Every structure is written in C-alpha cells, then in structure tokens.
Fold:
Amino acid sequence: MPYGIIKVDTITFTAGGVDTSVSISGLVQNPTFSGNITTTGTISGVTVIGSTTVSGATVTGTTASFTAITGGTAGFTTVTGTTVTGTTANFATLSGTTVTGNTVHATTITGISGVFTSQISGATVTGNAGSFTTVTGGVATITSGVFASGTAALPSISINSDPNTGVFSPGADQLAISTNSVERLKIGTSEVVFNDAGNDIDFRVEGDTNANLLFVDASADAVGIGTTSPSATLHVKGGNGNAIYTDNDGSQFSGLEIRNNGTDKAYVQYDNTNALYKVGSRVSAPIQFLVGDTERARIDTSGRLGIGVTSVGNKLVIAQSVSTTFGNAGTYLGLGDTENSSGQQVLIGFGYKGSSSNEYPAVIGYTATDNGGNQKGALVFGTRDVTTNTAPTERLRITSSGNLITPNNIGAGLNIGYKKYVTITGSFAANTWYNTGIDRTTDTGIYLLDAWVDTYNTGQSYQMSYIGWFVMPNRATNDGGAAGITLHSAGHAPNAEVIQFRTLLTPGGDSKIYLQWQSNFALTLDGSAGRNIQVAIHKFANALNSE
Structure:
C-alpha cells in the first residue's frame, strides 16, 4: 500500500464509547501534529512535537516540544517550550520562558521565570527569576527571586527538615538569620547587629592559631581578646610578648586617653614631636602610685612628691617606719647602688642652675676613696666663689675614719669624735706635770681641752668647768721657766681660788705633751678627797682654713 496523507478535522478513538489509546505503528515512528492535541487518556511516545497546545490528564514520553503543555500530569525526559503549566510535572529537564504549577519534581529546572504556589523540589533549580512559597532540593540557583518576609520561627528561606532555621526579613531593607526560631544576625541599611534581641548568645572569631581571637561573652557583657573568660568590659590576653599596641598615623601623639562619663580625666601618651613620654591627668587630682593595692607614693596637685605619705607639705617628703638603727634600716634616701669605682662622686646639687648651666653652685656628696670589698669613702662639701658656670670646689671633707679636713690637708684633719682621757693614778695634785700620752711627733695639731671640777670645802660644794684650745706643733710649746698657757676658767672655788691649766714638753725629757693645773688645793680623780676632776682632750689634726 502506497504511503499517503490523511487529512481530517477531528479523529476520536473510542472503545465502547470510552476514549482509548491510539497506537500508530509502521515506518513513521515519530508522528508530527500541527494542531492542538486534546485527550482524556494518554499521549506517549519517544518524541512528541506540537506547535500549539498539548492538554490532557497524562502526557508521557522521552522528549516533548510544545508551545504550551497543560494537564494534570506530564512526564517527559525533556520538555522545552514557551509555557509549561500543570498541577504535577515530573521531568528530567524542564526549560522554557515560563514555568508554572503547584508541584514540579525535576532533576533540572531552568527558565526565564518560574511561578509556583506550592513547591519546587529536585536536585537543581536554576532560573533568572522565581516567585515561590517553597523551594526544596539539593541545589537552588536563582538569579532573582521574590520570597515571603518570614519570621525568626518560620524564615522564608529555610533548611530542609529544619524549618525554624534560615533567612527572613524582619522589616523594610533588613535581612536576618535565625536558628532554632531565634534571631542571631540582622543586617540593616546603617548597621550589622549580632544578637539584636539581647539573648545570652556568645560570639567568637577564630584566628589562624588562636581559637579565641575575639570573644563576646553575652552573659558577662564583656569582650575578650585571646580569652573566653573576660573579667572586665575589655580583657586582652596575649602570649609572652606585647598584648596591646596603640599607634598613630599622625606626626605627634600616640597614646591612651581615660575618660569618665565622656570627660577626659587622664592619659598616657608619647609626644613624638618633642620626644616626651607623658603620664598625666587632665583634672586637678593627685596621681597615686600603688604596690599591692597600697599607696606607696603620690604627686599632689601642686606637683609635690610624697613617698610613704599621703599629705605632702614640701617638694619632696619621704617617710618610712621608725628605726633606731644607725645604718640601712634607718636610711630614708639612698644615692648610688652597684656602681663601684675609686674616686667616684655621688653628689647632690644646690642652688640656681640656669637653662644654659650644667653646674650647681654648691654640692654635698660622697667620694669613694677605696673601692675594695663594699667600698669606703668620705663625705664632701663643695662651693664655688664665682657666678660663672663653673664646677664647685671641695671645701670640707669628713674622712672614712672620722677626720674633718680641708682640701689643703687631705690625709690629716680634725678628729671631732676622738676623746683622749688623761689617766693619772692617785691624787691629781696641783702644780705637778702629768703625761697626757700625746706625742708631738705623731699627734701634731690643735687640741680642745675640756675639764670639769667638783670641789668640796667646809661643807659646801663648788663646780668649775674649763675649756680651751692649745696648739701642739712638732716643737716645744714652752719650757719649764716659761709662763703657763692659761685656759679659760669659769665658776668659783673657796677663798677665790682659780684653777689654771698649761701644757709643756720638757718635764719628761721626751716628745710627749704634759698637762698641769695650778691651784692651792688638792683634787683627786676618784673624788676620795671630796674633790673630783675629769679631763677630756679632743684632737684636731690640722688647723682650720678660713676664707
């Protein structure tokens, strides 16, 4: 039978009055329909191509290409066309300008626009625009989409099987993220807020090697850097190195400003322009220095420094616990420490020192004379007698052995603390020379004699004191025939008697100095005769210089 063409307006296939399926077999495996195809049954085939509309209860096939597909069920491996609508569609690939329907299950859905009132599910959803109540599936890629605002409990974009976790919009121009029905992050036009609802939710940022590079402790309202347990509003914990840097892009100041209720109170800064490190207050308040939470020093509002005191009356006040020990325990101020060099000077300057001057007009200090062991030295005093910027000159020195000396007689000197008591046995009779033991060849200098006499006569007691200077050069003071050197006498004795002292070298024929007191009544050293005398001699090794 030759092939031909059958043209009819309508062909209806029925079986017993009921529409039935039509099978077309033969050499033409892929029929082409140029008009609408309407059926209440099933259209199936490897390829079904129509130019207008395919509608019916069920459409199945490997490939379908229609301008429009409408109907309850369409099941094709590939469907392409302008419009695809239907209650349920199951496709491996669905593409077209517009895709609408209540439920679409497909491996891939692509289209310019897709509108669904219920659900899209599948492995991949792609499209330029989408307006959906629900999108479910492994991957959803939509260039633009319109979703309901949603809430923290029911976000508009949620996770499969976890509908209270996702993305929603709490207000105009706002986007938020919630988990377990609680808002965690909100992004607005002017701020990004974490935990805007004020819940007890911590925030943590992890660095490359620091798990707690930034930690916000919600329950403590504190921020920790390097710690999960901040103990203050800001707690910084670093390793064995610098924890905080303050830097400045400007040319002068870098530092830390301390405020109270918005008012500057104190600061710590570095002034790069003037090369100054500053610690100060911007209000009239003392600066305290504490150790062990106990005040140890302070600078008051007048710039006076107090150490160990809270009330400062002078430029420098130092106080400590009372000590009766002459030495370190009783030392309030120490100058010098481990420096050790013979001849080193440790001085305190006094007086005017102008901006162009580097010398004080007067000094008091210490000069090391022997740096062996723990060192020893002298206390020195210096002044200058000019008004130029000249170093002061040493004027007086107390040596390590207690000698008071002047610069021209360094090595000798005055021995203020030395007392030499005359030792005489028996009665200290008047008009008799007694050996003092002072040798003119080794003990030259100036001596101060101090004598105290207690006399008793006819039931009355008299006291007399004698004080005076005598010189002891390396030569005889006077000989036996010379008049005595009278020392100052005071007080009175019976019958207007006066005691006089004099010194002499020659009575013993040696180099010792002898002492004699002249009176007409007897005295004893021990007071056995009712009269007592005590004599002390203070030695000054050299005469004092005067300006």
